[in-house]
Amino acid sequence: MTVRRIVANLQAPDPQAARAFYGDLLGLDIVMDQGWIVTFASTVQAPAQISFASEGGSGTPVPQLSIEVDDVDAIYRKAKALGLAIFYDLTDEPWGVRRFYLRDPFGTIVNILSHQTA
Asked: Which of 11, 63, 74, 100 would bridge with 90, disulfide CB 3.0–4.6 Å?
């Protein structure tokens, strides 16, 4: 048996409200819209992962989602321009990621990150 993918299913009273955050801010494509569920995806294939944590690192709360992007600084600037509340500012972490936290329209803690190169 092989795990082919892992999908996060987050409860949302109005799934359509996810469009601005996950579509406009992060550039994800809508691959399914049944009205009661909207699924966003990237064309980039990555290994299936699931993490379990007692904290989010650096004393932060555990994020429900971590989304790796190719340019965290560009997403950070876009989030600021959109007036989104960033509650853990852009930081270079000692384990080699540059990241920030914000909440999606449903209150989900989202960790936006890029891995740093040496």
From this structure: 100
15-115 — its CATH code? 3.10.180.10
| pLDDT value, residue 90 | 98
Q: Which two tokens stand for residue 54?
A: 């007692």
- Cross-strand pairs, 33: 38
Q: If DSSP states are collapsed to H, E and C, what string results for the chain? A: CCCCCCCCCCCCCCHHHHHHHHHHHCCCEEEEECCCCEEEECCCCCCCCCCCCCCCCCCCCCCCEEEECCCHHHHHHHHHHCCCCEEEEEEECCCCEEEEEEECCCCCEEEEEEECCC
pLDDT of residue 15: 97
What is the per-residue pLDDT for 1? 87
Mean of the pLDDT values across residues 62-79? 97
